[in-house]
Amino acid sequence: MDLGLKDRRALVLASSRGLGRGVAEALAAEGVRVMLTGRDEAALASAAAEINARGAGQADWVTVDLTAPDFAAKLASHVQEHFGRVDILVNNTGGPKPGLARDINASILMAQAQAMVASVIELTGRLIPGMCAQGWGRVLTIASSGIEQPIPNLSLSNTLRGALAGWNKTLATEVAGEGVTCNMLLPGRIHTARVDQLDGVAAETQGKALDEVRAASRASIPAKRYGTVEEFGAVGAFLCSVPAGYITGSMVRCDGGMIRSL
Predict the structure, then answer these.
(1) φ/ψ (deg, to 5) at 88
(2) Which InterPro entries match (predicted)?
(3) Quick one: which of 120, 148, 166 has its CA closest to 255?
(4) In degrees, to the nearest 5, what angle opens at C-alpha 74 toward C-alphas 71 and 77?
């Protein structure tokens, strides 16, 4: 299937590794020019070099810090200066530390809300007028399965990503008539460094061997395995495509059947 994305411009947050990089690589394979972002300069340079070596789309990169007060303004200005326009915005942030809902600290909550929610909303607000003006755009926000089925011991993630779900649905209704779609992509157990970290925390908390924890996790997934970053990236690229133009305001799961809700 031709996704109709050749020569489009995409800004992908937190894309030096993991899920963000997976979506960036899938977009680049369709001929998209992607701007990678993150805090690790060496990782960004390496990711961009690998994408460029494949010879499909082109990758540029810039270091950013989502917690900085001027994050959205500086990044929006930078990408517009280098690309001229932004057709696709992939919102992606790191996850907060595990913890119980009854132990949430207000100051930590507000700091995480700035990085995971406010920064995403402000950046989108700065870029979406250009999409509306040209009559075409895609906003894809990577979140978590915890929106639909809260994940034990990830109370901050469940809370803050849920806020993004309400924002995304509202925004989608506002801009659909101007050719812009806004969707969320919910990963289940996709094998990344973040999942390895969470499995390690679970093993320590439960007093079990890491392999035992992973085996139990895989057994709970109908597909009986963790997903791959490549599988996740392919779904993300499709949601940003021309053929997906009638999908908006949706939360799409890439979870191997893990989420139990309807």
Answers:
(1) -130, 130
(2) NAD(P)-bd_dom_sf, SDR, SDR_fam
(3) 148
(4) 140
At 1, the pLDDT band (50, 70, 90 cuts) reads confident
Gap between the Cα atoms of 9 and 32, Å rounded: 6
Question: What are the angstrom distances between the C-alpha of 160 and each of 113, 192, 195?
Answer: 6, 21, 18
Residue type, 51: I
Strand-pair partners of 34: 10, 59
Confidence (pTM)? 0.94
Rounded CA-CA distance 118/111 in Å is 10
Q: Does domain 9-189+228-254 have CATH number 3.90.550.10?
A: no
- Output the pLDDT for position 63: 97
3-state SS of the chain: helix, strand, coil percent to 5?
50, 15, 35
DSSP-assigned letter for residue 56: S
> What is the three-class DSSP state of 155?
helix
Return the structure tokens found at 93.
């942030």
Q: What tokens were used for 135?
A: 């009559």
* Domain segments of the chain as ranges: 9-189+228-254, 191-226
Are the beta carbons of 86 and 11 closer than 8 angstroms?
yes
Q: How confident is the model at residue 262 (pLDDT cuts 50, 70, 90)?
A: confident
Overall average pLDDT of the 83-96 stretch: 95
DSSP string, 81-130: HHHS--SEEEE--PPPPPB-GGG--HHHHHHHHIIIIIHHHHHHHHHHHH
Distances (CA, A) of 126 to 1, 50, 85, 86, 214: 32, 30, 12, 11, 41
pLDDT in tens, 102-132: 999 999 999 999 999 999 999 999 999 999 9
What average pLDDT does the segment 190-203 reach?
A: 86
